[in-house]
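FORM 7B - TANDEM STRUCTURE REPORT

SECTION 1: FIRST PROTEIN
SEQUENCE AND TOKENS:
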Amino acid sequence: MSTTFRNIVLATLLLTFVVVVLGAYVRLSDAGLGCPDWPGCYGHIIGVPDTDTELAHANTNFDRAVEAPKAWKEMIHRYFAGSLGLLIFVISIFLFRKDKYGQRHVFAGVLLASTLLFQAMLGMWTVTLQLKPLIVMGHLLGGFTLFNLIAWQFLRTTSWKPQIDLSLAKSLFNFGIVVMLILIGQIALGGWVSSNYAALACVDFPKCQQSWWPTMDFKDAFILWRGLGVDYEFGVLDHPARVAIHYVHRMGAVVATLAIVIYATRLWKYTDAQQLLKTNAMVIMGLLLLQVCLGISNVVFKLPLAVAVLHNGVALLLLFSIVVSVYMLISARTSH
């Protein structure tokens, strides 16, 4: 891959991280409906209403009164996301063209562009469907997916191909895929917690509601679709349903933590002198420890905004670190 392609992909990867973290900040600061329309904000493509005339017009023609701080948070996120979209389309064009080996990567280009378009639609539906939890969770997963698709293109520009035993590479690769899927499931649960405003349903740790098995409503907690026309800002579930969501996320964290620890240990133990994989295992363990501490801090310190946003960012980096290991393992297999 050319140096130009590599630099564009790296810049896009960094911008994607910023967009995902900004999205978390918007959601967690309750600014998801800061602009009740899309793609503009109270009919403004540039900026938000600020003059007396504009404010009067906006407050008359929209159901929500203008809250400038929330509106600006939402629009800044959209501006960053729009810039990201342009860079991703540039990458897709590069992938459609022949590289120095005479190959085209059409599938990768189409997948990247399609994911971007679907993510944009989810962003629109997040607003037009008034923070429907399924859409908000899907938007979170879409951002994580987009980041790792771009990351995969960046990894293709590297020479990270450790030489290890083929059967071991296959075994670790298969295990890595399982661990990656478990972590994605846990991230989805985290999105469900956030979109249903269940992060503080349990305010003590390690117990919940001073009990190892509090009163919970699982039946109502995981209804994915509740129809149209419902405003989900600040949640619609009763407390027992929110407790059930929070509790399941905690249990998922235990499963994910155990799976990641076993995987990282195997990467470290069985790859002998392959320093790349050993370093990767250390990064995975470090990010996992940080993520667990952040999750506990969210409960103990009553969901500080900075900690909650960082919890999202570290989850993305943790998934990325596992994707890196999977890439190196598949590269090791194909290099034999």
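SECTION 2: SECOND PROTEIN
SEQUENCE AND TOKENS:
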Amino acid sequence: MSEAYVRKEFVPPEPPPVTSRGIIGWARENLFSNWWNTLLTFLGAYILYLMIAPLVRFALIDAVWTGSDRSACLGPEVGACWAMVKAKLGQYIYGRYPEAERWRVNLFFLSLLTMVPMLIPSVPGKKWNVLFVLVGLPLLSYFLLYGGAFGLEKVETSLWGGLLVTLVIAVTGILASLPLGVLLALGRRSAMPVVRTFSIAFIEFWRGVPLITVLFMSSVVFPLFLPEGVTFDKLLRALVGVAIFSAAYMAEVVRGGLQAIPKGQYEGAMALGLGYWQMMGLIILPQALKHVIPGIVNSFIALFKDTTLVLIIGLFDLLGIIQLSFTDPKWSTPVQAATGYLFAAIIFWMFCFGMSRYSMFMEKTLDTGHKR
């Protein structure tokens, strides 16, 4: 008499083979799927080795980390002189800002963190946060950094420098260029001829001149048209020039998003009885800005890097103050310039990479699943 066995539960699934999952599976699929991909993988790895190995050796292996003067960084096979960067770090961050007042700059850096909640979709109170960033933060920053009120000593902008100037110009340009760009983009698509003509003329004029020319005009030419005895701070003129220049480019980015919105969205908003600004604020602009997030962030990254151009009008940003430090004979070595430029590249890359990653995060968060 034969016996029969009936299984009462499902057999647990077996894991996929090791060679088809994880890093090994990804490599087999993307790097070694056929002979030409394998050849290109090894060729690319060799080229990366030729590029990265000398940089790692210079920046880490042969680098000098401690020292009190140039003698620590002299030698036939000496790499980056990070001891110089450590000694000059205060100058790189604050410029010639008085050392006793640098706590005000530190508070300014902390105040910039108030923009973080505005960038996180799930944080409530966005309206108040935006209002503070657009109105309260500029006023707070002015009284903190410039002083002259509330018992704070006045610090002229000619003493500002380093990372402080870079962030002041970049943050001001970013906060001013986006709303101005949106208004110019709406004006260029306006049905009112005067508004449309003004917007087109404004955008095309500022896009037709290089930023370096705008800075020269704001620093040298603009004061010639002012009445005698009337002056504007050089940094303020640069901030206005950078903001206007960036707004013209931002307007074209936003206009591209507006043109991508189907006509049916406009008709549907008007069928609901929405006014022009309600339609734009509630229906059109949220969709348009979502479409052009990469372009907006790309403009912000370009603006952040273009802050280095203010050196030509006598404002010492991060790169300018690093170049100025090369004149110090105490740290004059063959690797002084290479170390300074490498440090500047690392700082700029960190900020730009952070903006790029945030752009990817927002694209993923706002993705509505309409990919083809």
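SECTION 3: OBSERVATIONS ON SECOND PROTEIN
The radius of gyration is 27 Å.
Residues 99-154 form one domain.

SECTION 4: SIGNATURE
Preparer initials: ____
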